[in-house]
User: Fold Peptide ABC transporter ATP-binding protein from Pleomorphomonas diazotrophica.
Amino acid sequence: MAKLLEVNNLHTRFKVRNGYLHAVNGVSFSLDKGEMLGVVGESGCGKSVSMMSLIRLLPPAAQITEGEVLLDGEDITHASVSRVNAIRGSKVGMIFQDPMTSLNPFMKIGDQLIEGIVYHKKITKADALQQAAKYLKMVGISNAEHRLNEYPHQLSGGMRQRVMIAMALLNEPSLVIADEPTTALDVTIQAQIVELVKSLREKLNMSIIWITHDLSLLAGMVDRIMVMYGGYVVEEAVLDDIYKSPLHPYTIGLLKSIPSLKTEAGSRLPSIPGAPPNLFSQPTGCPFAPRCTYRVDRCQSEVPALTAVPGETGERPHRVACWVDMRGKGVKQ
Ligand SMILES: Nc1ncnc2c1ncn2[C@@H]1O[C@H](COP(=O)(O)OP(=O)(O)OP(=O)(O)O)[C@@H](O)[C@H]1O
Ligand SMILES: [Mg+2]
Assistant:
């Protein structure tokens, strides 16, 4: 399959009062055209900052210090600001967590939807509104022409999230980055949005990066999963390999904390003991070592590199950053 995105050794840090907070520490991955990747990890592990770094949508205190991002072969990391602005919105669409903070409460839905296409595609307002209505229908909003004249507060939370999706898709981007797009919604609406994105992806052949802290949400939805911890990618493999044969102790811990049909009502699910790492200093060993029950001496002194091993399903290599061979339970050389 053709590659759409290639990210090599990306580092992003924040300038804070007494030094630097190292949010992204050498993230590398790629994404094929039409592929869907899930990015998971606990709060603060660098999911949002790494994905925002891809399109340089970062606050002023952030600096990308190393690495490169290639979208369709074009280097975004070193492109001009005007070029990156053109890429955002035309080639890349974003869906954020909270539609109420992303939509302007004083602007009609139609006007907000077409702002981007009028700017990027230079089409007339009437044509753009027609296009916007088409996308509102596609995301399941009935009476779309009428909704274009309404304001965000006149829509329900689920409808506002659908408007955000329509807005992200309107320019027919080749890549959509969805950052916890369903967290603020109730479970039924959440399931509807997941189904909607799945069907739109097939229809439009987009590549999607879906960020979540909920590993169970990704089942049956994504092709591959990338697990992050402390600003590092600690594991990445196709969905079945992550669910059925996880190789990183952190991923194993995350999977154990998902309720299954066998979980007895009222019983406590195991959580991973300990706290996420301090990102002010860079670790001398594996960032997960302090919380890891499989820890060996080497884990405290050397950061394990993300290394490819054959995947169980044979579809793609399985990448893992761990000194312990979780298949054989020995220590890697
Ligand atoms: N504007 C900022 N200034 C300083 N530090 C920041 C800023 N934004 C994020 N960080 C820090 O960068 C690290 C990574 O944050 P990020 O938002 O990527 O986490 P996340 O994995 O998306 O978490 P969540 O699941 O809570 O959204 C965190 O330690 C966070 O505190
Ligand atoms: Mg986030």
Observations:
- The two ends are 33 Å apart (CA to CA).
